[in-house]
Amino acid sequence: MAKTPSRSDQFQSLYNPRTNMEGKALGSLEAMKYLSDNNIPFIFLTNGGGKTELVREKDMSERLGVPVLAEQFIQAHTPFKQYVPEFEDKVILVLGGVGDQCREVAESAYGFKKVITSADLITATPAVSPFDEMHGYYFKNTARALPATMNSTCSQSGVQVSAIFIYSSPREWYLDLQVITDLLLSESGIFGTVSSKNNNPDLPNKGYLQDGQPKLYFANPDVTYATQYHLPLICQGTFKLALEGMWKGLAGTELVAKQHYTQIGKPTQLQFEFGEQSLRSVANRNLKRVYMVGDGPRSDIAGANNYKSPWGSTWKSILVQTGIHEAGSVPEHKPTIEVGNVLDTVKWALREEGIEV
């Protein structure tokens, strides 16, 4: 090793994403140890979620054998914390994930104070979903009483929802699609009501989404993901496609055309901007160059290639052959370079900075 890097202007940073989320990718243990030992700042940017960043901190530190802090984990839903000032004292609906874990993330990790789930809604109003084979089994231990509406002008006692956040892949699509649709058709987001403006040809968008309905916030745009199963499995991005198709069939309008929802997660500009802000905090300095390492051409590579840093940093994308992308195939989005494993990405980035390893 010809030269040991340090926190200098020579080597600015390395941005390390989902490839190492489980700490199993080839070369990841050695790579993380090298970065940690040499004080090279890095973060994990992943489209996964469903747990608090503190849980991720503990899991990853044990897997990698190096100290990893919660602030180094940017999950798909981590940027949702930015919306706390807007919705802190308003009722929000959180969907997705296992049991009550996403509600726990929203409350304990991010600071939202009035969080409800579809379990709460179906427990209070069982008729919203007549197919109840799974409801008692899945929801009985997580449901809470609904908060009183904050709108004194409400004609009904239904809870008023100000925003809908999809944190992770929903487990009960039928119920969650029904609940979202009811709220998008409601009057001022009051569950159980119907807006009188709906399907009015004299109003913009035929009157749909013109009556104070809650906006949607999606965390993960991925439509499939890889597991031990030999075929891709659908996930949150596919749920959004299902909602869009259903809405088009019911309302005859495009949900996306009205910009009624916000999409974060890789490869969006919002996610990468939040990630760079976090990396700057970890590094405690301005960044000139950032190296994005990942195995997903559509998320990692496309995101890094298209990202426009508000701080003026230059981004380079490194595609590793340890996950979604297979060696020898032509990636959909061309990276700066393609390498065999995670440790090789660190070596290449250091050489780019004039440091021989």
3D architecture notes:
With 357 residues, the chain is α/β, with parallel strands linked by helices. Helices cover 31% and strands 12% of the residues. It has a 5-stranded parallel beta sheet with strand order 4-3-5-6-9, with helices on both faces. It has a 3-stranded parallel beta sheet with strand order 10-11-12. It has a two-stranded parallel sheet with strand order 1-2. Strand 10, helix 10 and strand 11 form a beta-alpha-beta unit. Helix 1 crosses helix 11 and helix 7 crosses helix 8.
User: Could you describe the largest sheet, including whether it forms a barrel?
Assistant: 5 strands, parallel
CATH superfamily of the largest domain: HAD superfamily/HAD-like
Name of the top-level CATH class of the largest domain: Alpha Beta
Radius of gyration: 22 Å
Strand composition percent: 5-15%
- Which architecture of the largest domain does the CATH hierarchy give at level 2? 3-Layer(aba) Sandwich
Distance, first to last CA: 5 Å
**Total domain modules:** 2
Question: What are the key terms here?
Answer:
357 residues, Rossmann fold, 2 domains, 5-stranded parallel sheet
